[in-house]
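User: I'll paste a sequence; please echo it back and then give the predicted structure.

Assistant: Echoing your sequence first, then the prediction.
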Amino acid sequence: MELKNLFKLAALTTALALAGCGGDINVNTGSDGNNGGGVTPPPPGKTAQEKAYGGFASKSTTLAKIDGKEVWVLKGTLAPSSGPSTIGNNGGQDGKRIVLGNDVVWLLEGAVVAGGDNAKQVDLEIQAGTKVLGASQSYIAISRGSKIKAIGTESAPIVFTSLQKGLGQKGEAGQWGGLVLLGNAPVNTCPDLNNCSASFEVGDYSYGGNKADDNSGSIKYVRVEFGGFKINDTQEMNGISFAAVGSGTQVSHIQVHENNDDGIEFWGGSVSVKNVVLTNNFDDSLDWTNGWTGAAQHVYIRQKDNGSNRGIEADSNSDAAAEPMSNPVLANFTIDVAEGANSGGDDAEGILFRKGTAAKAYNLLVKGGAASGECLEINGSSTVANVEADKLTVENSIIDCTEPFKSTKDDADNVILNTEEWFLADGKNNLAAASDLNGYQPNPSSPARTNGKANLANEDSRLDNAEYVGAFDGTNDWTTGWTTDIHSGEQPAAGLPELNSCPAGTTSETVTAGLFKDSKVNLVCSLSGNLTSNVTLLAGSNVLYKLKGGAVLVGGDNKDSATLGIQAGVKIFSKADSYIAVSRGSKIMATGSKQRPIVMTSEEDVISGATPSRGQWGGLVLLGNGLTNKCSDKANCDVSFEVGSHNYGGNNNADNSGQLSYVVVKYAGFKVNDTQEMNGISFAAVGSGTQVDHIQVHANGDDGVEFWGGAVNLKYVYLTHNFDDSLDWTNGWTGKVQHLYITHEDGQANRGIEADSHKSAGATPISNPTLSNVTILPGVDTKNASGDKGEGIILRVATKGSLHNLLVQGRKGSTEETESGECLELDGSFPELVDHANDKSLQITHSVIDCNEPFKYSDGDDKADNDIDTEAWFKAQEGNKATAVTLTNGKPASDDATLIGKGKDLSADSFFDKTNYIGAFDGTTDWTEGWTFNPEK
């Protein structure tokens, strides 16, 4: 390739266009009369770079400078030199040692091959902070017997990227090749390892041998971007290829980003890798075959939606007897499985073990979305044989996916391995549960923090001890400083695609032009009836989903289990009679994001000319197998939900009903009669295996959120303008809530919190939740349409509970039209409530009441002998005050002396984030920003 021709016509235009990009790029267009070698004869008195690099490279004649540095070209074979050393302060050559200095930018033309095949060996060194650009069809190959020493640092990584990216243009997959290491270690495609020359798929280079501890050098803090050019359908370059590379090679802190084939691939060999980041790669992120026996630990894989295939594709050989068998050790992987299919038609999937591979795997975390493919699959009879012989094992791992498992079938379609049963078998300590992540880091409440395999170094000396599941411990981020495109602000989210048809399980409806407020909508997909197979609602810029015909019921009652998957950015509207109910044993996986929340709303909220208001549809109902005190026999429990007669309840408080993240429910809560009304989100005996975070319920016709028993936990909850109680619990709820913000609409609300347990003596479990960091702004003390006034909190009907870091600030004024009702009430009508208050199983600490009518006690009788002085009870507990505070839109100033620094830290319980403030906000961060509906706008 001649670069002068590539740039001749567009060079000046490119330079001018890039001038505003902040880069330092000078382009020399050259002339037709330039010498064909692309080397300009040096002027008298060579520069330091010419002295250092002139023996093995040439100064570019087309690109004068990039990033303020000269551009030097590498091409062909790098061979030893017999001349004197030219290594100075930066790079140069001394015999077989070639050093690429960071004082220039390096450009690859075509195949750059270090050394001959076990002959004329070269040690190629690359200094920290060096940038290497790959032109089209270029790559670097390290031959057998030669070495690479590419050791960057966290602050100065070595970056291999495309020429286009180096010029400030857009980097895209396939713009150059990648990095190839060829070693002398065993590979199972050679029957005679003493005479082995397997042929690499690009360039016909040889690899393989009988030296398991072969040393191909060291790679550390290296980033490889935008590689993977395609020769044909079977020959493509990986980001980094390890072909029979031996265990003497050191590899850590590498990233492969946006490669057009695999991120990294191993063909046999025994090299081990640590601290690996594989992002947005087109095919498989990590691929092994032909007898790889190395180890991999601390690996983060993030696939690209509609642009990736598998996180791991693992093979040994089609011949099950081929030796050595692939048998690596894996530990501490986090795989963020993409959604959709890449342009090659391959679905995004998690892990595929096949073709007779073995492996020992610990502490794997696989997280899949609504439209992800299977997250764990085992394929082929030879692979199943390894499972049965305990040669393929997975322990202390978490699968958190809408489609978690795919079982193995023979040619007659008979199941020969139930993957789910194998994964969840006793003794493996595996979970199929919500992983509870914040990005790629586990939250304090995540099971990933505590379920990891201990003493990994005792299992295999190549592993570090890392007693957590996944690549990260929740505290340390080893990707900071040297990686690209995984930290906030580096790359904006892409727009939603336009869908051409409705997903399976939904029905396309005719769309009348101008019907919807969003003029882009030209596709409406409806759901109705009982969904007894998995349905995934795909997000699109032009699509709305419609609920109709009454209850949209997911699954049967502990039979015909199904999962309703909902992608980030999906918008659902409902006819007046409809709602979603998720049956016992089934799941909803509604995984929105801050940039793309999932919205469930009324038809009136999306139709042109219509006005949304509370009660226009039903809402969302989750029915679980958790404990409820409505059942004395927990093993045979069938409680009927108040609307629709759906059953809930059981004996499993760890039950998993799926995930709700970044979900907004608006204008729901239709009324059947005076005792039957729908809540925005109903949690009926829902278990703690369910993940709920970042939810909003706005303008509901009854309660915002209600719990009937169960142990589900919630974080980041925003409840706005709900008609009755914003948060209501009863019948034995024992879950947890942190970061709860409640606001009322004046004259249209009752209580912020209404808390009950049971009326029948001896009923268990007793409601006993733990709440922390709560702000409640109750409405004024005027009646809503049901005759209820705006109040703060009522604790009653025998409930227990621990409330901490609570702030209630009522409206201020001199009349009931201008101020809130009582802000904290104890109701001892059922005397167990008084017992719980006295023995401190019902407690409030580190809290502030700021109201004109702060306290009330009631019990329905005139006797005073068992009454509680609510004010005295409150003030006697640690950290409580009845005092005025100043808030702006519900939030304190960052230096507020009453709230900031005065809270109780509950983080000894792993569910709770570490906090030291009272109320839902720390005075600095507004966690409602970006994804919620603001009723004030």
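DSSP finds nine helices and 65 strands in the chain. The longest helix spans residues 11-18.
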